[in-house]
Amino acid sequence: xxxxxxxxxxxxxxxxxxxxxxxxxxxxxxxxxxxxxxxxxxxxxxxxxxxxxxxxxxxxxxxxxxxxxxxxxxxxxxxxxxxxxxxxxxxxxxxxxxxxxxxxxxxxxxxxxxxxxxxxxxxxxxxxxxxxxxxxxxxxxxxxxxxxxxxxxxxxxxxxxxxxxxxxxxxxxxxxxxxxxxxxxxxxxxxxxxxxxxxxxxxxxxxxxxxxxxxxxxxxxxxxxxxxxxxxxxxxxxxxxxxxxxxxxxxxxxxxxxxxxxx
Length: 263
Fold this sequence. Notes:
Helix content: 25-40%
CATH architecture of the domain at 155-259: Distorted Sandwich
Order of helices and strands: EEHEEEEEEEEEEEE
Number of strands: 14
Strand content: 25-35%
Distance between the termini: 102 Å
Number of helices: 1
CATH class of the domain at 155-259: Mainly Beta
Radius of gyration: 40 Å
Structural class: alpha+beta
């Protein structure tokens, strides 16, 4: 039995033929190596496709998770807004002395109670609500001059009391202070107790006071809109730390600002 194979290589007219003897073991070795290389590449290709598919699926799942998280955040914000709307509606009705009418659903009607036309969150603009009266139809009331806005973002450190005619809101120096009502600036300057101070008179009898400011942005006689930045938190006057001293006066008498601020 022959154990070798003779390979004849004929280069053509330009040269002699070449004879090469190759053993069967060499041929088998070459075939085995080629098969192993092919199998290795095939295995790598299959694994790569699996890894790519898993990575693609993981990316799709991650995108879905991000969308779900965003939707959850939106739902959470909506729930907070709804809770704020309920508190706002209750506080405004208390201020106006308007009782809440029974809901059509409570009366067995298939109708749905309409939402107020416009409400606001703290640091927003005007509030427009429906005030219902037993003897008249619902009337749209513009409440720009009722101080329901928080004047600054911070922490309530001292409440209203018989010996403290306002509330103190602690906040870092430079925190914006906004007008809680629309009205005319009746005072903008220096006070020996409250330092840099601003007073705003609204047409509905409210006067709001902002004290210990670091810088004033409005002048006396200027008309300001509700929510406009009028000053920055500071520690001027008789003050030991940066904070806003905020007062609300109604018809010349100091009242607790918390009666009107929407929480």
